[in-house]
Amino acid sequence: MPFTLTPTYDENPRLRELVTRLRDYLDGELADYEAKLGLTHESRYTRDVLEPVWRRSRELGFYGIHLPPEHGGQGLSFTELGALKEEVGASGRVLQLSVLGDMGGPLRAGSILRYATREQLDRYLLPVIRAERACCFSLTETGAGSDVRAMTTTATPDGEGWRITGHKVFSSAGPFADFSVLIARVAGSDAYAAFLVDLDSPGCTVRDAETPMSGQHIESDIILDDCYVGPGQLLGEVGDGLRIGLGRVTANRLLHCPTVLGLTRRALALTLDFARTREVFGGPLAALQSIQHKVADMATGYYAARSMTYDGLAALDAGGRPRAEAFMSKLFVAETAFRIADEAVQIHGKAGLVRGSEVEWLFRSLRMFRVLTGSSEIQKNAIAHQLFLGERN
């Protein structure tokens, strides 16, 4: 595919049509909705702001589009889903995470459908897919980020059910969720289990999380104090907790990258527009060779990061297990995205330093990805592990 910041996907008619419709929705109806409400990336908004977006996105076929047809989706390939996630990230929309279901929706719930009982599907997961309920994942703790086995949240058997005590942090979509997929260590053992915890249960408190540097208010702390869950709320079997919590590890690691690529693409597009229109020394900023070299490096880095990501996604679609490639993509995309964002601020000059400007927000958001979903150092450890152990791993 020729390099462009607005790919057409002519080789895939289904994807081309989906991307065209998605761009129309993001740039039209959703943009108008956000403008009417005066939303910014750092706005505090409530469930009633999000629900219309969930429902409308479902009506248009985007909410849960990756799911199989029996669950109302189109059974997208990993590559197709990646392309849509990139478009959403590149849109500049405040509520972008609600369109495909990243924010408490089907993209959160889809990977655990196979573990659920019929009752759990009907009560918890299918309503999420229908945009009627929302969920969050609660895995991380203050002392258990990359080292998830250091978690201290404990589930103690109580009759046929369980009593859970612990403190989870950075539960994305927590402020808007009805229930949490919560991972806990089983008391007296080294086993972990996953539970569907109703967030209005006695002993469960949802509290505002610390505000991340992106300024978004989409995270919560989930605090449990002897919170009882019934036997029907155990998801899968005891011992499945980390497998469920970490999900489709390789696929999820690769699928984080297109969203970041979209944000990076947005930063690059804003920079090109600024350089074309900003007048300095009697001409456009873009006429300066120093600026031309910067944007050339930015575009080349974006192209390389994107190529790595979609190569990994294609391998998944072909039935492969590109573990090393997924670690490499996460590392390279995170580091490259931040360098591009840094140059975007540099080229914008004072305009890029103003709190609340879009390029300044992108800089802060892309900096976070070097830590989120596994720091760059963790990715390097894993890459080296794959290289040294090879097939023995």
From TrEMBL:
The keyword Oxidoreductase applies. Residues 239-387 form the Acyl-CoA dehydrogenase/oxidase C-terminal domain. The keyword Oxidoreductase applies. Residues 136-227 form the Acyl-CoA oxidase/dehydrogenase middle domain. One of its GO terms (molecular function) is flavin adenine dinucleotide binding. Residues 15-131 form the Acyl-CoA dehydrogenase/oxidase N-terminal domain. Keywords: FAD, Flavoprotein, Oxidoreductase. Its cofactor is FAD. It holds the Pfam family Acyl-CoA_dh_N. GO terms for biological process: fatty acid beta-oxidation using acyl-CoA dehydrogenase. One of its GO terms (cellular component) is cytoplasm. Belongs to the acyl-CoA dehydrogenase family. This is Alkylation response protein AidB-like acyl-CoA dehydrogenase.
